[in-house]
Amino acid sequence: MADPLLSLVIPVYNEEALIDQLVGRCVAALAAIGPDFEIICVDDGSRDGTLPRLLAARAAEPRLKVLALSRNFGHQAAYTAGLHAARGRYVAMMDGDLQDPPELLPRMWELLCYDAHDVAYGHRTDRAEGWGRQVLIRGFHRIFRNFSRLQEADNVGNFSMLNRRALTAFLSLHEKNRYLPGLRSFIGFRQAAVPYARQARPDGTVPKMGYGRLLALALDALFSFSNLPIKICLYAGMSGMVLFLAAGVYVLASKGLGVAPPGWSSLELSIYFMGSIQLLFLGILGEYVFRGYRENQNRPLYFIQEYFND
Question: Which residues form the Glycosyltransferase 2-like domain (predicted)?
């Protein structure tokens, strides 16, 4: 069987209510490009009726493939599993919550097919999310852009399309702590942005990726692509040295003038401050040690329970 022209990889986790709308909109968007495509939905260990709904949709649409993982391995691992299974000459990635509009896929394909680009990615110009979440996400992207020097990774997510050459380079990166937008920017090639406004979930619920998972993903990005944590240690240590050098001068001067304050409160505060700085340094170094240990373990990113394809 010949490889399809286009593959679309969509990880889903507990998205039972959106499956029919997701498949319908994606099929319509890809059909605007041509009939030769496949949609690979990766069920990342869902606990609701997501998998049965996907299999029911597959019965009506044979171009839909369902890759069921053995448990929940996480968003980035689910994407990686789908990318390894994709056979298309062009491969797209899109989240399964429909906050990224599949109707932009034909525009991405045109950039790759007719404008000689290797990668087309969605650039988020606006977000239909709460102001607190927006502030945190925009703050992270600004820090990441400045310290990683990956300009294409600013205000972007996983929504993108790559040709086979760029995808081969992308899949050659095997680290376990994965931040896919950073990896996609890291490989280089000719990349083009497609601006769009990130939409709210169609069912009106809050995004499935909560603040805890967002923080974990942000830490993976910063530890993998920037030296910001080490710089925090360096600058905090230098600031502490300057602060306590000034405090030492003050203590000596006050003792010489006979106006030294009684008690040990200043000494105790100094000990607590230095102790907290040391614990911060140990925590940051521990993050690097743990990530190095995880890489050396070389465990698989995912296990496939079953692949429903032709």
Answer: 7-167
- Sheet order of strands, 6-12 included: 191-198, 119-127, 156-163, 90-93, 6-12, 37-43, 64-69, 304-308
Long-range contacts of 127-134 (CB under 8 A, 24+ apart): 127/197, 127/198, 128/99, 128/197, 128/198, 128/199, 128/200, 129/198, 129/200, 129/207, 133/207, 133/211
Q: Are residue 193 and residue 248 in the same domain, yes or no?
A: no
Q: Spell out where the chain has E strands.
A: 6-12, 37-43, 64-69, 90-93, 119-127, 156-163, 191-198, 304-308
Largest CA distance in the chain: 92
Q: Which of 207, 220, 208 is nearest to 153 (CA)?
A: 220
**In this structure, is residue 1 part of a structural domain?**
no
Of 19-33, 53-67, 176-190, least confident by mean pLDDT is 176-190
Tokens 């049965």 sit on residue: 52
Residue 129: what pLDDT? 65
Boundaries of domain holding 270: 228-297
In the predicted structure, residue 212 carries a pLDDT above the cut 60: yes
Residue ranges of the alpha helices (H) in 49-130? 50-60, 75-85, 105-113
Q: What is d(CA 52, CA 308) in angstroms, rounded to the nearest whole number? A: 12
30 within domain boundaries = yes
For the chain, the helix, strand and coil percentages under 3-state DSSP, each to the nearest 5: 55, 15, 30
Do 65 and 38 form a contact (C-beta atoms < 8 A)?
A: yes
**Do 187 and 49 fall into the same domain?**
yes
Nearest to 48 by CA among 98, 93, 10, 12: 12
Measured between alpha carbons, how far is 115 from 95 in angstroms, rounded to an integer?
Answer: 25
Residue 258, helix vs strand vs coil: coil
pLDDT by residue (tens digit) across 265-282?
Answer: 556 556 666 666 776 677
